[in-house]
Design brief:
340 residues, 6-stranded mixed β-sheet, DNA-binding, Rossmann fold, 12 strands, 434 Repressor (Amino-terminal Domain), alpha/beta, homodimer
Amino acid sequence: MLDKKSPVTIRDVARRAGVGVGTVSRVLNDSPSVSPATREKVRAAISELDYRPNPSARRLSLGKTLTIGVIAPFFTRPSVVERLRGIESVLADTEYDLIVYNVESGNRYETYFQERVRQERVDGLVVISLRVPEAHVQRLLESDAPTILVDISHPDFSRVIIDDVDGGYKATQHLLDLGHRRVGFLSDYSDSTFHFTANRDRYAGYIQALKAGNIEPRPEYTVHGEHSRESAYELASQLLSLDEPPTAIFATSDTLATGVLEAADEHGLSVPDDLSVIGYDDIEMAEYLNLTTIRQQLFESGVRGGELLLEAIASPPDEPRCILLPTELVVRATTAPPPA
Amino acid sequence: MLDKKSPVTIRDVARRAGVGVGTVSRVLNDSPSVSPATREKVRAAISELDYRPNPSARRLSLGKTLTIGVIAPFFTRPSVVERLRGIESVLADTEYDLIVYNVESGNRYETYFQERVRQERVDGLVVISLRVPEAHVQRLLESDAPTILVDISHPDFSRVIIDDVDGGYKATQHLLDLGHRRVGFLSDYSDSTFHFTANRDRYAGYIQALKAGNIEPRPEYTVHGEHSRESAYELASQLLSLDEPPTAIFATSDTLATGVLEAADEHGLSVPDDLSVIGYDDIEMAEYLNLTTIRQQLFESGVRGGELLLEAIASPPDEPRCILLPTELVVRATTAPPPA
DNA sequence: CTGTTAGCGCATTCAC
DNA sequence: GTGAATGCGCTAACAG
């Protein structure tokens, strides 16, 4: 015989405490208008029955989903995971559930924005490192559920972005300071990539630094492809096979930088003596590899994004807010003056 | 003036299509008892109104949450992220939402099991690399929402585990085959750690291999601490400072292995000539570092776990199912015969 | 202060 | 095959 004990509801509690359901609801929601005595009775009944409110009912009645959605290319990059951690850390103390939408392929990318993300589904959305499809911008903006961008820029959305122009500038400037004149730029920037503004900005910084140093950018020194070590390996090989190869390479992520390191090794080049390499992000591996890099506040970006979202849900700002996080040059062992 | 267009409901669709709400609900749920003609009418109305059913209402009415919870130490280890990816990939094609509970501290660990995980909150739960608190085992087992374990063993739960005894055996055997007689075992196994059975099993395999090779295990060769490169560095240093230090070290994760590599370097030991090092997991970095390791099917373990859960929800098995995933020795450049 | 009641949007009987 | 009615568990508005 099935002993399906149906879950205890608010009515059971009310009965047990000898009060009405309304009162139980009030103590549940910390309403001030409940006498201490009855409050205590209700509390007792709740704990005796080990009662927990049914979230679905609560959500339906409230007209809120009490959940936050995060849409991101989670698993492709350590940096995204760090940001996610930051978001999760601020949500953990709230009543919001965190539901994750992982985007690894183009079709799911569109699908998530189209299907899943609606007022009825989440109370707020944060998009990490992913370009918002133009087709969905308007709807997102009009929705009651606010959207926050992290590590991606768009003038109409509140966002926390990294000062990537400055980061790119710093990286390049560091190389220039060391005496390099031939600096390669290697990234996964490309129109087909979801990940968009960050690399563009870093590139801008790269160009600015070059110009400030009176160095004419060479088109052949800029390469880009997929975001993987393998791809970076190919791209770097291409750079190093040039008639006049760069003496330093700025890779727009630490992961890419490892591919560059690999290629250097393959070409019999010793780092940093023959070739300087600088990465970006300062993920855990960077420290181990002694990689010079541009550190950005990964976890912090998630925290700030989460906070922005919570605030926006509480009271929508009149206009988009923008938080700009600084970067920091971390000099380690993969950069040095160019060979004499 | 606020133009709060209230979301379109099933009633709007019914009205538009000139039918009752029941009928709309039927076509929504692919009920066979709807005439093709009206089905078409309803479909048209749905798309004209761009109607989407309200998940909260649906859940309440259905008495299901349509969400799956994953509780794991997500962000601490790349391996966990890989497993999560696997789970997400099978859930992405279903109507289930995936909500994540990140456990980084002890109190949240207890809290999640206690508060969040209840029938009313999720329809199913998967626990990754985390020991289930004994105090909650019974409740979990009795719940209508099945619990699946991934990378953690418990006789009462369906689970997908890795053959870690064999993995530990293989790693040790590989070292023995190379001629090593003094093999250290370095792990993050400890009672205070959530992560539990995996390291214990690997240790068992280590001991078995030693015994099979007629080598008496030495207590001082077994060390454990936190799961971090820094910790591994300390532990390895300790090992290498022994009067008779091991000539090979088996670290129970690739992350730990990097710490060992670091310590070796610090001690002026060259790998693999002076010291052999083998890791575990074969995360992405292992390939880059040319680390000999034991590969396990990380992503696959998540996939299988997700499938197990879906099946359990559909029809609870009479007794726990157990899927055992094999490991594979991947020989790269950090292991070699001991110094002469 | 507190009990009662009316929805929230959908699925699901039950008659027709 | 289809419409109308009932209930899922909770919140909020309304009396008292």
